[in-house]
Design a protein that fits this description.
Elements lengths: L5 E4 L7 H4 L9 H8 L7 E6 L7 H10 L3 E7 L17 H20 L4 E4 L5 E2 L7 H18 L4 E5 L8 E2 L4 H11 L4 E6 H6 L4 H11 L2 E6 L17 H13 L6 E3 L10 H23 L2 H8 L3 H13 L4
Parallel strand pairs: 1-2, 1-10, 2-3, 3-4, 4-6, 6-8, 8-9, 9-10
Antiparallel strand pairs: 5-7
Helix pairs in contact: 4-5, 5-6, 6-8, 8-9, 9-10, 10-12, 11-12
Length: 329
């Protein structure tokens, strides 16, 4: 993380579209949003949704983004093309629908590779249930594991990262938290499989982000980090550090110690209230850069490791606050 790459959510740049593209009706195109994102100082990468954002040849799209000075960090699967996916993608009761979801994911992997990326993020939000007595849980779990295993085997050199989330759109997601996701990864047994930590998802899974990261590093690996913030009740998509500053710094420290070398991706939602997405993304980048400087100072301070060894919360809070805000004079 010495040279940190910063990626962001492309759809954020549809925010306030009437201000950026006067007189335009409808959602801006992929390239319009990318051109707007290219104005963000410090932004190096974009993540694209598949198939939503990849309507042209992936290699051509990659070249066009490269001309703007942006790389493709990875693709993220979206299962919206078939209305039946609402009842499940890899876990749908109809084998033909499951096959369609798996084959679509394989095409997504091929597209990612053709675009020069080797990262596919899978958020299986439709795979879950809403009612007691709706599903055979053991059978549903087996479908999920089988689907993930087949996708991983399609291209062993492409990293597959599971992004977990407690619920939404389903009332209960089959991959709601770090521990359950790690159980699935253990059963799948694929070397190219790992986890994407989305900060707001982790919060409302009632997890401490750095603890989740440490568990994942112990049993698998963190392949993606989505930074944002929220009030731990839903996926708020607020700006980085807006609510949980200390927890964000602790997470950055943890993933650095565990050797994470991927991009820091901003999964924030400026479009929900019409914020300026360029300014919002720039502030997120500067916030993380400041936080990483705090991490540097923490790692150089022997007092912190000593206090952590004692589980001395009072001392650790004093040290962190001092290194964030400066000592009293």
């Amino acid at each position: 993380m010495n040279t940190t790459r910063f990626a962001t959510r492309l759809n954020s740049f549809a925010s306030g579209a009437h201000l950026a593209w006067s007189g335009q009706s409808g959602k801006p195109s992929v390239m319009q949003m990318a051109e707007r994102a290219a104005h963000v100082n410090g932004l190096t990468d974009l993540d694209l949704n598949y198939p939503d954002h990849v309507s042209e040849k992936p290699a051509d799209l990659s070249r066009r983004l490269g001309d703007l000075g942006l790389s493709i960090n990875g693709l993220a699967m979206r299962y919206y093309t078939n209305p039946d996916f609402k009842l499940g993608a890899f876990t749908h009761p109809d084998a033909s629908v499951r096959r369609e979801a798996i084959d679509l994911t394989k095409k997504g992997l091929d597209a990612a590779r053709a675009a020069g990326s080797n990262l596919m993020t899978i958020w299986l939000g439709q795979d879950g249930f809403d009612y007691a007595f709706q599903a055979d849980y053991a059978k549903m779990w087996q479908h999920e594991v089988d689907g993930i295993r087949e996708v991983c085997a399609h291209d062993p050199d492409c990293l597959i990262s599971i992004e977990y989330k407690p619920n939404e759109p389903r009332s209960y997601s089959l991959m709601p938290d770090a521990a359950t996701t790690l159980l699935a990864i253990k059963e799948v047994g694929a070397a190219n499989l790992g986890v994407t930590l989305d900060f707001a998802h982790v919060l409302y899974a009632d997890e401490q982000p750095a603890f989740a990261a440490a568990l994942i590093a112990r049993h698998s690996r963190v392949l993606g980090v989505h930074l944002n913030d929220g009030y731990a009740k839903r996926d708020d998509g607020l700006m980085v550090g807006a609510v949980h500053t200390l927890q964000t710094i602790e997470l950055l420290r943890q993933i650095r110690r565990d050797g994470y070398a991927g991009a820091i991706y901003f999964d924030t939602f400026p479009d929900l209230t019409g914020l300026d997405p360029v300014h919002e993304c720039e502030v997120n980048i500067k916030t993380v850069q400041r936080m990483l400087k705090v991490v540097d100072r923490l790692e150089q301070d022997n007092r912190l490791s000593s206090a952590l060894d004692r589980q001395d919360a009072v001392s650790t809070q004093a040290i962190v606050q001092e290194l964030m805000f400066g000592a009293e004079h």
